[in-house]
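Justification of computing resources. Each target in the renewal requires a structure prediction run like the one illustrated here; the chain below, 184 residues long, is used simply to show the kind of job we budget for.
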Amino acid sequence: MTDHDQSQQKRPPGRPPKYAGEGKRQNFSFRITPAVRERLIAAVRESGRSLSEEIEFRIGRDLNWEQTKGDIDKMLAEATAIRSDAYVHALRAAALLILRDIEARPRRVVIDLDTLLAEADGVMRALRSGFVDDREQPTKPPAPRRSKADEQALAQKAQGELESLRRQLADAERRTQAAEKKSA
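Resulting structure tokens:
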């Protein structure tokens, strides 16, 4: 076939499809109330779409909304998990604060739950600035840029602090064992 013969070919009858890339479109029949019909017709006038296009647009938007709602629920669950982790850390910190306030060296401490929760709430409030929405997911501040010398100095300082903590812990264990031997 030559170019001239191709131009002489007949086109298929009827109007060319508006949505050629989407395949054959399906017809649906359904019933709606007169009030919904009036609202659809008003929306058609505003949007400039046909009634079929408006219905398809709104159904597509509703299906996308369901997917978005699922994504929102997933993000909410993740944020709740992050917040609960922070709350567990606050509970631990509160328990440590309560134990530090006790002057004697008790072997066992009984703390009622209300006191612990109130203290944890105080710890949580101290960690927040008051100008941030509690529902907003926390973000990490950008890490400052440091030179290699600064990094080495910080690493040495951290190592020294770690050694100091290990010595304090070993000393505390020795004192605890000695106190237990005396009381036994």
